[in-house]
Design brief:
homodimer; Ubiquitin-like (UB roll); two-stranded antiparallel ribbon
Chain lengths: ~160, ~160
């Protein structure tokens, strides 16, 4: 069984200045994906796609990722209902990163911990030793109860 | 010589809900970084930091990355003058991705090809075969001439 076919990477000029979609997947077959809220520009999450997830996202206009913890294609929102409708999808200069601008269904949350964005803590600047002990919560309330939504499903966070 | 010290990763709860900065570096010692323009929310670039680059960014409030092509710490803008002043720095739930909200010096460009954002091409949605041949340029003009700025420096894009 062969996967979806993307363009070949022939030259720097073709990759950077051409109209051919020639994504570079890493040694694990993945490409990083940056997902922002189309309405606000807020960064919601950072994930990964394999070639199949990229193709499914193009075909359906709903965000599909590759779950490294579950080792499977992941249709975002299939469990929680918080699907991500793709408003615009872009690729960077050397085609090794994807940007999804999405509109999220329901409450608009995108984080399995319950927050709106996965990036709910800021790092104080200036001194490394002080920063290590003082992450600051920028979101004060969860938008949903993860236990109610996910039940006993394994937490995707890996130590 | 030991590098900068970040927190230990003890439990999922501590990583997700704690105040300790305990970043997860991958097998190459890197963590992905999403950089957006603080003023507009536009995604400027997707890069990587090692522990030293993360520490230098905290200490100086100027974005430092790790260049995978040059295999060296990279003070963004050291050559072009387009430094990135960090307005806010955040980390995600499982602490394996960093978000930099920056204000860019000079013209505000962040892409070595000359465009403002590295993400200057969109992927048309609906059909994979059509998408592969039809990337669409969303920026029409370069903000600087890469040859004038970088001269004979090797292009960082890897095929």
């Amino acid at each position: 069984m062969s996967g979806p076919t993307f363009g070949p990477r022939i030259s720097i000029e073709q990759v950077e200045e051409g109209k051919t979609l020639a994504p570079k997947f890493d040694s694990n077959g993945l490409i990083p994906v940056v997902t922002t809220a189309a309405e606000t520009g807020e960064l919601l999450m950072h994930g990964y796609m394999n070639a199949e997830a990229l193709a499914k996202t193009i075909e359906t206009s709903e965000a599909h990722y590759y779950s490294r913890s579950r080792k499977a294609i992941w249709h975002k929102g299939a469990t929680s209902g918080l699907t991500q409708k793709v408003v615009e999808m872009l690729i960077d200069d050397d085609q090794d990163a994807v940007w999804l601008r999405v509109s999220v269904a329901g409450s608009g949350a995108s984080c399995h911990v319950g927050y709106r964005s996965c990036f709910y803590r800021s790092i104080p600047m200036g001194d490394v030793a002080a920063a290590v002990e003082n992450l600051k919560f920028e979101e004060s309330e969860k938008t949903f109860d993860p236990v109610a939504v996910y039940g006993d499903a394994p937490n995707p966070t890996q130590l």
